[in-house]
Design a protein that fits this description.
The protein has 1 helix and 13 strands.
């Protein structure tokens, strides 16, 4: 029997605990591979009070959508900030720095959300707060699996930097 294309959120595996510096912390579970998704990425994220899951960033190729399941916080999009709460559906369109985004849990309870994103084999991501740019390319192998063949992050065109550089 094939893997079922359904999973209940209360059946998700133990999340990966990610902590970076003093501002970033999340518990993340990728769902796509669990249900056989091919062209969209799905993840369940829990962000503790006072934290963010990732740096402020914009995508040139991949579009994202967030569905707030529990809690409240702030959605930062470009120069604007919007309050969010359970039941909100949030667009993160592709584009330049005006579409840079992230969710901030500025409440006193966990912020839980689903993220859905398109999968693009090539992506460019900018990080306006730290001045970084990231690029990657994923290609298919002969056996049908995919592998990242190119990944590069730069700051001011002077060389590689880590994903978290300049974010604290």
């Amino acid at each position: 029997m094939a893997k079922p294309p359904i999973i209940n959120l209360d059946s998700l595996p133990v999340p990966e605990h990610n902590v970076h510096g003093s501002r970033y912390e999340s518990f993340d579970v990728g769902i796509s591979s669990l249900i056989g998704a091919r062209k969209l990425g799905y993840a369940h994220t829990v962000v503790p009070p006072g934290k963010r899951s990732c740096p402020f960033h914009n995508h040139w190729e991949e579009e994202e959508l967030f569905i707030i399941l529990e809690g409240r916080g702030t959605y930062r999009l470009g120069e604007e900030r919007f309050p969010v709460r359970a039941g909100d559906v949030i667009a993160a369109p592709t584009g330049g720095r005006e579409t840079a985004h992230h969710l901030i849990n500025d409440s006193d309870a966990d912020l839980k959300y689903l993220s859905i994103s398109t999968h693009s084999p090539t992506e460019i991501v900018e990080y306006p707060d730290s001045g970084k740019v990231g690029m990657r390319s994923v290609v298919s192998a002969a056996d049908g699996s995919s592998a990242t063949r190119f990944r590069f992050r730069a700051l001011d065109e002077n060389g590689k930097v880590d994903y978290w550089d300049g974010e604290d």
